Amino acid sequence: EGLEVRRELGSILLRAFLKMVFLDNFSHSDLHPGNCLVLTKEIPSQDMFRAFWNFVNQITQQETTHSSTSANDVQPTKTVRKIVFLDAGIVTALNPNDQRNLRDLFRAVILNEGYEAGRLMVERAKFERCSQVPGGIEAFASGIEGIVKEFHANRKSGLSLGAVRIGSLLARVLDLCRVHGVEMDPSMASIVVSTLVLEGLGRSLDPNLNLIDFAIPFILGRGRV
Prior knowledge:
Largest sheet: 2 strands, antiparallel
């Protein structure tokens, strides 16, 4: 049961983080374990209508007795767990260009289209030196393609938190931007650090959680928590 609870919490954690980054564009940037509070609540496991009639039937059957009866006595419950993020004193929001670049980068990992993602990053940059150097744009795009292909190859063994490091991938992309002079908002560095911290926390809960399974709804559709 303990492993199931850890897996459930890890799933909630990943979905919440992806929602903050890709849907809300308002990310908690200090998600260490001390800032994650787990709330547990028991709720009725049946729909309200059925629970109500069960309660009425129970009252009817016991109307000749003096024992007290409540709804909690006649309906089963299930445990619901939520994660509350505390201390949101450090948050990050990306500008529209960097938000699109981050989404395209994740899409490139899913679809193995790193070269196109690199080309778009140069095209959208407020400042870049690639176009001033012969073959510069191609070199940068090829660099992104190489990082994505290496990461994409891990799909054969599964993209679990125990097998891959998405934070490391993002850090390598930022370093490539530095080398080729492709400007990125400093907020991207905060997203990278947040991802590294979150990965460690998620890995400690369940190293077998698959990143792609959680990322696809947020990258290719409308994700939900």
